[in-house]
Amino acid sequence: MSAVPEARSTSIDVARVRKDFPILDRTVRAGRPLVYLDSANTSQKPRQVIDTISEFYERHNANIHRATHELSEEATEAYEGARIKVAGFIGAADETEVVFTKNVSEAINLVAYSIGNATAAGGPGRLALSPGDEIVITEMEHHSNIVPWQMLCQRTGARLRWFGVTPDGRLDLAAADQLITARTRLVALAHQSNVLGTINPVAEIAARAHAVSALVLVDAAQSAPHGLVDTRSLGADLVGFTGHKMCGPTGIGVLWGRRDLLDDMPPFLGGGEMIESVLMDRSTYAPPPHKFEAGTMPIAQAVGLGAAVDYLTEVGLDAVRAHEQALLRRALLALGEIDGLRILGPAEPADRGGAISFTIEGIHPHDVSQVLDDRGVAVRAGHHCAWPLHRALGVQSSTRASLYLYNTADEVDALAGGIRAAQKFFGTQ
Amino acid sequence: MQLESMYQEIILDHYRHPHHKGLREPFDAQVHHVNPTCGDEVTLRVTLKDGSEPVVADVSYDALGCSISQASVSVLTDLVIGRTVSEAMAVCDAFGELMRSRDAAEPDEDTLGDAVVFAGVAKYPARIKCALLGWMAWKDATAQAMAKESP
Q: Catalytic site residue A385?
């Protein structure tokens, strides 16, 4: 009799998880234990990922898809195997919907340039833009989901429009009917804000966009690391995310797209490996995903991303999220008690991820983060590549702490303690 | 705690009580410089006075930023106002040199005056741009003002 599969534990053995991340053992600034609260910037890497990359270079290194020797077969299998793992991780219909890129910025630029190329070629119709067409983004976007669209609008004469943000850090959906109209061709938005932590109602916005036949692109850089991307329910047509924020290496990102859409999209970068046939007067292109993967790709990095997917799946994404939510509640409470501290974004954990940006009255974020750094607490200070959002919230810059599976309650307390120390150092409290 | 090596008392004093702050008329050139990594910004005006050699008559500014960038531009105004442009440029170059030294060079106190306290900042690569923001703006504004004077 087959046993019912054992329910996956919803709690993390954080001490055991931390042992997987060698860097968490080191000290910083003259002997301070590292308190790494900058995972929204880039995550740390587990031994399993580091070893997979080393093993690839030590045992299997070769170029892919273009040699008949055994090493090339192994390398190709590892690379394409990573694609299958990623497809499973995000619920893709199949792995041909998974395009490897350098990062999210490249994934979004790929789409923007593909649309630009379609516009120049006068089709296909669902991609080509005309003056008067509109692209809708939001004020809480990372620059990587703003600038490519500004550039596309400059090239095509399309108009860029913006969802505003409410004072508590949510998208202002009241304006949705005015923003998403018959003129809308594409809606591009973050799944989870890298500054506010806000998780946006993508499915709801996507339904409105699809009702006017607009495409929906989702920047999932901050949500994919927490296993929040299920392309079957998200409602998006295109999704970008990056490996290095989800325990994988730098240099590898993903663009997921519906296969019929990827079929229609003209290529972005031309070169080796993306072709079907090259003649002197024209070329024809390989089917997706290879149509979008010109030149030698970051092979070892893709393999490393596959290992990261395996690692996160093994730990259990439900458990990862439950752990982060518990830390987030603790952090919101602890920071909420500090006089002069303003949390940017939702103060409650509902529909919110573990990035917490804040300002401290009378102390510039650079100075806050410097005091934290002196105590071993690594955070980010500045505008976090979200300048329009900071302007909308009326702040010049902020300090951001961000949580991941390896963080502990003690580290949250170290953050709160460090902020109080900064207030003492600068004499504001 | 290593913090004190960066946040010298003189720096904190300038931060809390900045010298020559505010935008004043008349001026020969105005620039707006931004540190794109953190969004800190400074609007800075330079007024020159003609003579046998041009002299920095006034530097006025409005700035948004961290203690290091604020204190740095305040110290700058103390050091360059009243000097000839060539003397002031020498101070600016010495300050740039100090920031690039990663704390290896012995700062030239005769040239740099109070600005030697920024030697501690040079140990923190992420903060060097903060310290240089006002100086780069001053250099730019002064070059523009000079270009205007000698068409």
A: yes
- Residue ranges of chain B whose CB lies within 8 Å of a chain A CB: 1-3, 6-7, 12, 37-40, 64-68, 124, 127, 130
Question: In Å, how far is A380's CA from the nearest CA of chain B?
Answer: 10
Nearest partner of A227 among A138, A304, A320, A145, judged by Cα? A320
B80 close to B56: Cβ distance less than 8 angstroms: yes
- Residues A52-90: pLDDT tens digits? 999 999 999 999 987 789 999 999 999 999 999 999 999
Vertex B98: Cα angle to B96 and B103 (nearest 5):
145
Rounded to 10 deg, the angle between the A317-336 and A409-425 helix axes is 30
Q: Report the distance separating Cα A294 and Cα A96, nearest Å.
A: 15
| Structural domains for chain A | 14-38+316-425 (3.90.1150.10), 52-313 (3.40.640.10)
pTM of the full structure: 0.93
pLDDT digits (tens, 9 = 90+) for A260-317: 999 999 999 999 989 999 999 999 999 999 999 999 999 999 999 999 999 999 999 9
DSSP string of A308-339, one letter each residue: HHHHHHHH-HHHHHHHHHHHHHHHHHHHHTST
First vs last C-alpha separation in chain A: 66
CA A365 to each of CA A170, A372, A382: distance values in angstroms, whole numbers, following the listed order: 23, 10, 7
Domains of chain B: 3-146 (3.90.1010.10)
Whole-complex ipTM: 0.89
Residue A336, CA atoms < 13 Å, CB-side half-sphere:
11
User: Beta strands A380-382 and A377-378: pairing type?
Assistant: unpaired
SS3 state of residue B38 = coil
A367–chain B Cβ distance below 8 A for any pair: yes
Residue A269: strand, helix, or coil: coil
Task: Answer yes or no: do B1 and A374 touch at CB < 8 A.
Answer: yes
**Is A426 in the B-facing interface, judged by CB distances under 8 Å?**
yes
Say whether B39 and A374 touch across the interface (CB within 8 A): no
Hey, are the CB atoms on B124 and A383 less than 8 Å from each other? no
